[in-house]
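Bug report

Summary: structure tokens for 5-formyltetrahydrofolate cyclo-ligase differ between web form and batch submission.
Environment: batch mode, default settings.
Steps: 1) Submit the sequence below via batch. 2) Compare with the web form result.

Sequence submitted:
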Amino acid sequence: MTAASTLPDKPTLRAAALARRASLEPRLHAAASARAAAHALSWLGDVQGEVVALFAPIGSEIDTGPLAAGLRAAGARLALPVVVDMKSPLLFRLWQAGVPLVDGAGPGRLTIPVPPESAPLVIPDVLVVPLAAYDPSGHRLGYGGGYYDRTLAALRRAKRIEALGYAFAVQELPCLPAEPHDERLDAVVTDAGIITVTAED
């Protein structure tokens, strides 16, 4: 029996990590989001002119607002994901300062904030990735739809892109099961700091 086969299944791991995230008090949630933004900006360095794709947080997800503000101040161009359909990679629309977001179709029956259809489509240089859980090896557990795995695979075939997991430190698990289609992150940034991922043999 391999180590991976002894791990709890993905739904069990996902539920455990999400319960930890949901237990954060609002005051701690805000402070941790601000610390994570500072770490992310330090890791990204010079982003002048780069397209950085963020995500609009839903529920108890880490607040990306402080990171968005820091990136705009540093000269980055921001984008947000758009769901095309359940089997396709995400597309990204430019999110310009001062332009209100609108409701868009999200995974399943969710509605997510997206830029208006008049916003141009862009290809990110940096992809900030939401997640339910992560491990120190850069494996990510999403919400079960596979959107970001498909998206990262397509983007990496086209160009070099940095994939940055963005979450709270309480969402770290020691080891996650990895499948062939799972795309690893280049780094994970949390309120506790930065985990830089090294290539696997």
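Above is the batch result. After comparison, the two runs are identical; trailing whitespace caused the diff. The chain has a mean pLDDT of 90. The helical segments are 10-22, 26-44, 65-73, 147-158.
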